[in-house]
């Protein structure tokens, strides 16, 4: 199940009145702010988490896979999404969620070749001990949750406040 951020807003009655009276304006302002938030979060993940803080850069493929998707609006629901670890960077999911112990067997080649204990080794299969999760996506969301909430609250305040001044 994806890690989601739930936002509870102050001034619920004022918000509901504003949503009923001028939903398109509110959704447009919140949608624009959500786009900025997802761009900021994608930049944070790439510049911090995938540049040495959580994972070291080896090829840059995983870091280059981080992207903010366009903000979607369905009725009064505004959704922002940041994705990573797709396509050639599929292995990012193994870092984010970790792996269970598993066996690795030779595929097209007849043997696996690797270095262990400073010596070249070969085997038809090896037992991988698994790896712990290294939350580069989840931690980024959690570390920025307060700023995200503040940004969304400010967008709502702007949308509803501008509406009330125009009455």
Overall average residue pLDDT: 86
Counted beta strands: 8
Shape type: elongated
| SSE run | HHHEEEEHEEEEH
Q: Which sheet architecture does the biggest sheet show?
A: 2 strands, antiparallel
* Distinct helical segment count: 5
Tell me the fraction of residues in β-strands, as a range.
15-25%
Based on secondary structure, the structural category is alpha+beta
Distance between the termini: 43 Å
Give start-end ranges of low-pLDDT stretches. 163-167
Strand order of the largest sheet: 1-4
> What would you report as the Rg, rounded to the nearest angstrom?
22 Å
> How much helix, percentage-wise, in residues?
40-55%
Topology:
Blueprint: H1 12-21, H2 23-47, H3 61-64, E1 67-68, E2 72-74, E3 77-79, E4 82-83, H4 92-97, E5 102-105, E6 112-116, E7 119-123, E8 125-128, H5 136-165
Antiparallel strand pairs: 1-4, 2-3, 5-8, 6-7
3D structure, described in words:
The chain is of the alpha+beta class and 167 residues long. The chain has a domain at 12-86 and 133-165. Helices cover 45% and strands 17% of the residues. The chain has helices at 12-21, 23-47, 61-64, 92-97, 136-165, and strands spanning 67-68, 72-74, 77-79, 82-83, 102-105, 112-116, 119-123, 125-128. The strands form four sheets. Strands 1-4 form a two-stranded antiparallel sheet. The protein has a two-stranded antiparallel sheet with strand order 2-3. Helix 1 packs across helix 2. The relative contact order is 0.20. The model is unreliable at 163-167 (pLDDT under 50).
């Amino acid at each position: 199940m994806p890690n989601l951020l739930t936002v509870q807003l102050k001034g619920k009655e004022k918000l509901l009145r504003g949503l009923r009276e001028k939903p398109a304006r509110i959704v447009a302002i919140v949608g624009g702010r959500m786009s900025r938030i997802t761009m900021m979060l994608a930049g944070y993940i790439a510049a911090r988490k995938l540049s040495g803080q959580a994972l070291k850069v080896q090829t840059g493929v995983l870091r280059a896979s981080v992207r903010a998707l366009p903000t979607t609006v369905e009725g009064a629901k505004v959704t922002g999404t940041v994705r990573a670890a797709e396509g050639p960077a599929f292995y990012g999911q193994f870092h984010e969620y970790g792996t269970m112990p598993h066996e690795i067997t030779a595929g097209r080649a007849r043997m696996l070749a690797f270095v262990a204990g400073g010596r070249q080794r070969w085997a038809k299969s090896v037992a991988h001990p698994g790896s712990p999760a290294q939350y580069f996506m989840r931690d980024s969301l959690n570390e920025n949750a307060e700023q995200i909430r503040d940004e969304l609250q400010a967008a709502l305040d702007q949308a509803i406040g501008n509406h009330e001044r125009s009455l």
